[in-house]
Amino acid sequence: MFEIDALRLLVAVAETGSFTKAAARLNYTQSAVSRRIAALEQQTGGPLLERLPRGVRLNPAGRTVHRHAMEVLDRLSRAERELAVLHAGHGGLLHIGAFATANISLVPTALRALQDARPDVEVVAVEGPTDTLMARLADGVLDLAIVSDYPSGLPSADGVTTTALCEDELFVALPRGHRLAGAGTIDLRELRDEAWLQNAYGDRPTMLADAFARAAFAPRKITRIAEWSGKFGYVAAGLGVALVPSLAAWAVPDELVLCSLTDPALRRTVHVALPAAPLPAALKLRDLLRDAVD
């Protein structure tokens, strides 16, 4: 409704008590100040200043507009400072996203290092599947995302670049009482009679489906479970087995055993995804993520 410059002029006039002094402070002519204040008074529906023999002062309506103007100008000033710090890479908000198992250890380790190195950077973190995170990067909602090519490959998004961070081996989780729990390494065909717990399967190509095809058998049953806590619970109850990435090993309950699989293709690649013009703080976090996997 009101122009920011007009609000600044009103504040300056109120502080100096003079159109002439306000003009000198803000590098305007006295006539320009008079015109802008008159236009502001027209917008607000009446006079904002009492014209005195020597100078001016705010009337009740002027004090009301002045109070709100001070609040607006203060918030704009803080926004300018935050943006300047943000674009200089010294602080501000950093919006990041990651898939679920990256948040078990990898991301918290890097964020703790970022907190130590850049305490003035405030991180806003969200969790989601890779395709959602890539879309949010393309839309400018996120400044960085940790994504992977599991279970169905790495999607692309306009203006988003990805850099491989690490390879993540996929283990099979078995209950401790399973006949193969002590085997260490298992051929997938030894699990042909098991039910499998998988979030995505059948609606599009997946890494697990490709592994079954290489092993020349179809799974007896697929139970669609999305959350890792649910998968772990089903495995512990003997209701199926599940692929578990090494990034999640730290969170696996004691009731389960992780075994390697002989298929070398059963591993995923974790990537850092960035927009075309990444923030300096995002580049710093990318470097700390690399340190976390070394």
TrEMBL record:
Organism: Streptomyces laculatispora
UniProt key word NAD: no
Family the UniProt entry places it in: Belongs to the LysR transcriptional regulatory family.
Domain HTH lysR-type span(s) in chain numbering: 2-59
Signal peptide: none
Record bears the keyword DNA-binding: yes
Keywords from the UniProt entry: DNA-binding, Transcription, Transcription regulation
Protein's recorded name: LysR family transcriptional regulator
InterPro entries: LysR_HTH_N, LysR_subst-bd, WH-like_DNA-bd_sf, WH_DNA-bd_sf
